Amino acid sequence: MTLVDKKQLIFHINGLVRTIETASGLAELSPTARSILSFIGEAESENRALNVSDVVKGPGFGTAPTVYARLAELEKADWIKSVQDPRDGRAKQVSLTARARRAFAKMSAEAQKIIAT
Q1: Architecture of the domain delimited by 3-116
Q2: What pTM value is reported for the model?
Q3: How far is it, in rounded angstroms, from Cα 32 to Cα 115?
Q4: 93 in Cβ contact with 55 (< 8 Å)
Q5: How does pLDDT run across 60-86, given as a tens digit for each residue?
Q6: So where are the chain's domains?
Q7: What interhelical angle do 64-76 and 31-45 show, nearest 10?
């Protein structure tokens, strides 16, 4: 990769992300929903379990009702699943579904190709 290419790298990466988001259906989600999905994915990649309350308190996702609505939309669209927290029966843990993991794996694979060049 030449120096000029490296200066344009972020635009190339953003273009690939948009292409994958469109192909996987992620582009149909609101920016807030995509951010929440990413937040959940990052926690999973660090082997951290997240409760719904962790997401509600997350970095600037909006008011609690907005976050709850986005989580419900993500679950209905099969991007996330929620289950009872085994440590606290009153709480629910959220995690990515296979669909979301495939979309993020594809993005990661494309990023690896860029890094390898």
Answers
A1: Orthogonal Bundle (1.10)
A2: 0.80
A3: 28
A4: no
A5: 899 999 999 999 999 999 999 999 988
A6: 3-116
A7: 80
